[in-house]
Design a protein that fits this description.
The chain is an alpha+beta fold. It has one domain (2-70). Helices cover 19% and strands 33% of the residues. It is built from one helix and five strands. The strands form two sheets. Strands 2-1-5 form a three-stranded antiparallel β-sheet, covered by helices on one side. The radius of gyration is 14 Å and the shape is globular. The N and C termini lie far apart (36 Å). The model has no long low-confidence stretch (mean pLDDT 83).
Length: 91
């Protein structure tokens, strides 16, 4: 299972959808990156393979970042999924 995670401008919580096939995930990732490059204002509609009733609609102009990762059965060392950044109060 491959997860495509979107980070939106002015929003701390990322949005994500899952795709079963790597080719479908790579295609979706590529189209989202293309929208980031072009700075378009189109509406992007996404569906999730893992949860068929889950649907997202996002304005391309609100995309800040996109990432793709493979969901495996093993957790990361921190117990969190991969992400763009982590804020820590331990300073």
């Amino acid at each position: 299972m491959f997860t495509i995670e979107l980070t939106l401008k002015h929003t701390a919580m990322p949005l994500s959808v899952q795709k079963k096939e790597q080719e479908a995930a790579d295609t979706l990732y590529g189209s989202l990156v293309n929208e980031l490059r072009n700075g378009g204002s189109q509406l992007i509609e996404l569906t999730c393979d893992q949860q068929p009733h889950k649907k997202l609609a996002v304005l391309a102009s609100e995309l800040a970042a996109v990432q793709i990762f493979e969901k495996t059965s093993t957790a990361t060392a921190s117990g969190r999924p991969p992400g763009f950044f982590a804020l820590s109060a331990d300073q």
